[in-house]
Structure formats: C-alpha cells, structure tokens
TrEMBL record:
Subcellular location: Nucleus
Function: May be a DNA-binding protein with a regulatory function. May play an important role in cell death and/or in regulation of cell proliferation.
One of the GO BP terms on file: apoptotic process
UniProtKB keywords: Apoptosis, DNA-binding, Metal-binding, Nucleus, Ubl conjugation, Zinc, Zinc-finger
GO cellular component: cytoplasm; nucleus
The UniProt record lists the keyword Isomerase: no
The keyword Transmembrane helix is annotated on this UniProt entry: no
Protein name: Programmed cell death protein 2
Origin species: Myotis myotis (Greater mouse-eared bat)
GO molecular function, one term: zinc ion binding
Pfam entry (one): zf-MYND
Every MYND-type domain range: 135-172
Source taxon at top rank: Eukaryota
Length: 344
C-alpha cells in the first residue's frame, strides 16, 4: 500500500513487485496491467473508456492510491489514468477518481496484511463481487458476451476481435476452458508497483548558463523587434527546460510527481494551461493540480514497439478541489498534456 499524502511533493518510482501486492485488496499504486479497481460500483463503462478522438478502447496507464486525511468519505481514494494506444491516434487521455469511506461494501475495516495472502489460484480477476463481468483484454467493464460460448466477456467489439485472434477462437469450443486461458493480447502496458518517496528538498546546483553566443553578420530583413522577441522566447524556453532538468536531476528515474494543490513543473513554456483551460468540476468547485506523469514513464511502458506510439512531455492531472462525493462510483477528472517542444 503506497499511500500518497497531500501536502509535500512526493515522487513516484516504478518497481517490479509480486502480483499480490498489486491487487485491489492492497490498495496499490501501480503502472500498467489491468486496473485494480477500488470501489466496485459505478465503474466507468465502455463509452467513458473509449478514446474521445478515435473511439478505440483506452489502455490503463496507472493508478494512484491517494486518500485524503481528515475526510471520512475519502478514507480510500484512487485516481485512474487511461490513454489511447491505438495507432495512428495514440492521443486520447482520460482520468477517473473514486473514493470510499472506511466502512464500505468492498473492503475490511482493517488495513491489509503486509504478507502475501494464501494463493487462490486466481490470476486475473474477471468478475466483480456484484457479478458484473470484466473484459478479458483490458479488465474494464465487459457488458458484451461471446455469443458462442457465452463465457467470455468484453468491453467492445474491438477487444472481442483481439481475443479471438489471440486464441479464443480455439478456447471458445472447449467449454469451461475459457477463464484460465488468457493470452497476452499485446494490449496492456507492463505492470509495476509505484513506490512513493518524499522529494529531497536539497536542489542541485543550478549550473550558470554560459553567455549567449554573439550573432555575427547581417540580420537580413527581419525587424529588430521580431528578432528580439524570438530570442527572448527561445531563452525563456531554454530556461523552463533547464529548470525542469534541474528539478529532476537528483532523482532522474521519477515517473511521477504528486502534490495536491502544488504547482506542476512544466517541460516547456508552450502549451501551459491558463486557469480558464482547466474546467471546473461538475459539482461547481474548481479543479486543482494533483499529480503529474513524467516522460520517464514512457521508458517503462515500452509503448514504442508498435511504431507510432503514446508520447508526452508532461501529463498534469487536475481533480476537484472539494474531491466531491456527489456521485457514487467513478468521477471523471481532467488531464492536460504538454508535449516536449522541438523549438531549437
Ligand atoms: Zn485514440
Ligand atoms: Zn476491453
Ligand atoms: Zn466464445
Ligand atoms: Zn467536484
């Protein structure tokens, strides 16, 4: 159970962990695999987990266990981030929040044991306590059923087709053989635990930038003000990127930074959201920054094996300042993507 606490800036690192530590009962923070759902009511459905740009099912990127101290209704609290990994799109992003009081329908009142549970033989969870079925490919709600065997469940036609190609075509004919033959569909991201550490306050020496080289020769026809403003823009761009590098230099492996209500650090001066770019929560409250995903995570996702792939500089997640509990189930929050600019 890697708890992220509001207040200080905390860093997340990806580490290999035994599968049991990444199950829902352990309240994990983790990357990849299938989501370890927190509350089992009101899961986002196939429509909410479809890419808003291309319509294909989104892939689970990571989840954070981020309870709010002092909030009885958010004794447990999880944030779940999804992205589109279907080429050529690879651009859609969505994030959901779920929270539960300590007394709830799904988990014990006591914290989970630090020891591995007795082996149940259950490798992949395909059913919720309510009986609702999960998709064999992505682990999200699977309201569609294979019409032949009536045992395999999917979120979408898309994933049914993937599973069919990956072996369900054979397993479908063998009754009772469906659940324990889940192939690698080449859809999920590799799975890691996210280990949280508080950021060291010591900031590394900021290397003084060398003097700007003189531009020799004719300035051509460009007006002086334009050149001046270009130069200013470029040096501002350099400065922001340099600050970003300095900030992560001590812990270059960090895959995320958590700090509810803190300011994100941007990799570029381009495409920084203004206040009006962050939509309010439907409850009426403002959304505030909660965590950011760093470009280092891309190394763990190994997403580029498919060619055109997911990419980002920074993903900044903003959540309801009130962390409202109006709706039971999963509430969509807001994610802002900033790319690495390729300005010279
Ligand atoms: Zn898409
Ligand atoms: Zn699916
Ligand atoms: Zn079937
Ligand atoms: Zn709200």
């Amino acid at each position: 159970m890697a708890v992220v606490r509001a207040g200080a800036a905390e860093l997340g690192f990806a580490e290999v962990a035994p599968a049991w530590r990444l199950r829902s009962q352990q309240f994990p923070s983790k990357v990849g695999g299938r989501p370890a759902w927190l509350g089992e009511a009101g899961l986002p459905g196939p429509a909410e987990l479809a890419c808003s740009l291309c319509g294909r099912p989104l892939a689970f990127v990571l989840q954070l266990y981020a309870p709010l101290p002092g909030r009885a209704d958010a004794f447990h609290r999880g944030l779940f981030l999804f992205c589109c990994r279907a080429p050529p799109c690879c651009a859609g992003l969505r994030v959901f929040r779920n929270q539960l009081p300590r007394k709830n329908d799904f988990y014990s009142h006591e914290p989970p044991s630090e020891d591995p549970p007795p082996e149940t033989g259950e490798s992949v969870r395909l059913q919720l306590q309510s009986g609702a079925q999960l998709c064999r490919v992505c682990g999200c709600l699977g309201p569609k059923t294979c019409s032949r065997c009536r045992q395999a469940h999917y979120c979408s036609k898309d994933h049914q087709a993937v599973d069919w190609r990956c072996g369900h075509k054979q397993a479908c004919r063998q009754a009772g053989n469906v659940d324990n033959t889940i192939p690698d569909h080449n859809f999920l991201f590799p799975e890691f635990e996210i280990v949280i550490e508080t950021e060291d306050e010591i900031t590394p020496e900021v290397s003084e930038k060398e003097d700007e080289p003189e531009i020799i020769g004719s300035m051509g026809e460009a007006p002086a003000e334009e050149l001046e403003s270009m130069a200013k823009h470029e040096s501002r761009e350099d400065k922001i990127f340099q600050e970003f590098k300095n900030k992560i230099a001590l812990e270059p492996e960090q895959i995320l930074r958590y700090g509810r209500g803190l300011a994100p650090i941007w990799i570029s001066g381009e495409n920084v959201p203004q206040e009006e770019d962050i939509p309010d929560c439907p409850c009426g409250a403002k959304r505030i920054f909660e965590f950011q995903v760093m470009p280092q995570l891309l190394n763990y996702l190994k997403a580029d094996r498919l060619g055109k792939s997911v990419d980002w500089g920074v993903l900044a997640v903003y959540t309801c300042a009130e962390s409202c509990s109006r709706a039971t189930g999963y509430t969509e929050e807001f994610v802002w993507k900033q790319d690495v600019t390729d300005t010279p």
